[in-house]
Structure formats: structure tokens, C-alpha cells
Amino acid sequence: MARHLLTGSELTPPELEAMLDRALALKAAPLASRALAGRSVALIFERPSTRTRLSFEAGVAELGGHPLVLRAGELQLSRGESLRDTALVLSRHVAAIGLRTGPDAQLRELAEHATVPVLNMLTARHHPCQALADLLTLRETFGRLDGLKLAYVGDGNNVARSLVVLGTLAGMEVAVASPEGYALDDAPGATLVRDPAEAVTGAHAVYADVWVSMGDEETAQERRRALGPYRLDDALLDAAAPEAIALHCLPAHPGEEITAEVLYGPRQRIWDQAENRRHAQKALLELLVAET
Ligand code: CP
Ligand code: NVA
In angstroms, rounded to a whole number, what is the distance separating the alpha carbons of residues 262 and 270? Predict the structure, then answer.
């Protein structure tokens, strides 16, 4: 049975800790692993991507493998071939499959029929590879995760959900502040509040994501109205712990969900987060491919 990463909850706390240790080692020695030598990895993008595509493509190459980037419309999937048949054929050629798509059910269906690991490269409800890089960034900054508090401020979206799943798995306290109508619908172990100031009290990191995610464009106007008071600015960061850092998964909209002062300022670790995608995903690929 192949091991998949669809939400992050497939990992045990010791596995997560070991994976982040391994990611730090790979960051220090990026060419130290040949875990994918002679193998290929299919990376299917049904939605746009800058970071996920770059970090997976470069990461697979650094592991000695060959990344096959496939965009929407390039597979027979776009002409009605089933996910089941796509999974069966891809599994005969590649060591792992990454998928970025909308519906989580599509990812689950691909995973159900694939005999190689399937990785979630973003769905409407989850973005676990982002959260792995975020935990790596926190671990680098504070030297630990257990006992840290992370505050996410804004839309209760895929990134927020994955931070709750993986942050709580790592022993962190996760607080999410969202306006009415935009709160996470399921967040076991997390604290959900309305007031951003309440969420950031004592937080070691304050996290922002876009107000209009891919697929939410039709409701952009009402989202901007509702989420207006949830901007990550210096004043909100001042209300967190003195050593608090600002995080954002990117792409950012300076002046909207985050100010330019924070995005490019001294307290952010946002550009490290973007780099850490590659290191975290390499450790993840090593783990999943080794066990299959
Ligand atoms: N953070 C993230 O997943 O970025 P992309 O959409 O550019 O891949
Ligand atoms: N929540 C955003 C994350 C982008 C990386 C989206 O789904 O568009």
C-alpha cells in the first residue's frame, strides 16, 4: 500500500518531527540525497502555481529524480479519461504523483487508485505541503515547535485548516481569528475566535493568507469587505509576543491582507517560508517513496 499525504493527518507526531529534522539537514546539504535517482515524479497542476511548482520541480531534481510537470489540458483527463485510469497508468511510470486541484474528492479518488504515493499540492480544503514548510520555518526560528503559539488571522481556508492539522500534531497551540461566515468549519484542537487581537495574544507567529483564494473569485467583493479588519500590520504584530514573527504563504497582496511594511520588514520570515517549501517537500518525498 502506498503512503499518501492528502491532509497531513496521515503523519504521526514522531514522523513529523523526524521529517522536519531531515528537512533541516537537507537544507544544509541540498545535494546529499539521491532518494529519487533514476525515478520520475508527476506533478499535475489544474490550478496556477509559482512556489509549489518551483519547489517540487527543483526539489525532485536535487534528489536525483526527473520532475514531470503536467498542466490542465495536457492529460487525457481533460477529455474525460477517468481519475482511476489516470492513477493506474501514472503508477506504472512514476515514483510519486503530486496533484493541485479544487475538489478534495478528486485528490482522494486519485489516491484510492494509485499504487504510488499521492501528495496534495493544494486543494480547496487543504494545503499540507505549505504547512510543513511553515513548521520548518518556525522550528528554524525558535528551535522547537512544542509549546509555541501560532495565530492565523483571516479567511478560514485551506491554509488555515492545514496549519491547524499539522500545528496541533506538532504540539503547538493554534488560534484562528475569522469574521462571521468565514470561520473554519472543522478545527479540532484549535481555538476559533472573531477578534484578531485575542488570537494574537502571546503568539510567536502571526500568519496571513489571501482573502480571495483560487476558486473564490466570484465572492471577491464581499470577502474584501468582511475581511478588511483582519489585515496583518505592525500594530497587530505588536500585540503578539515580543519575539513574534510574521508569516504568509504567498502570493501576497500588499495593502490588502498584509501591509508592505510587514511583508518586507524585519519581523517577517516569509521569504524563508517560500524557500523552505523545497526542503520540507524533499524530506516528505524521501519518507513516502522509501516506504512504498
Ligand atoms: N504558497 C503557494 O502554494 O504558492 P503557489 O500558489 O505559487 O504554489
Ligand atoms: N488560500 C490560497 C493559497 C494559495 C497558495 C488559495 O487557495 O488560493
Answer: 10
Q: Is the CB of 43 under 6 A from ligand 1?
A: no
C-alpha cell at 269: 520570515
- Report CA(274)–ligand 1 centroid distance (Å): 9
Report which protein residue has its CA nearest ligand 1's atom 6. Answer: 49
Same domain, 159 and 256: yes
**Domain harbouring 135, CATH code:** 3.40.50.1370
Between CA 250 and CA 87 the distance in angstroms is: 30
CB 55 within 8 A of CB 82: no
Tell me which residues are annotated as active site.
100, 127, 130, 209, 249, 277
pTM of the model: 0.98
What is the distance in A from the centroid of ligand 2 to the CA of 44? 16
- What cell does 175 get? 488560534
The answer to the question of residue 283 being in a domain is yes
pLDDT digits over 175-214, tens only?
999 999 999 998 999 999 999 999 999 999 999 999 999 9
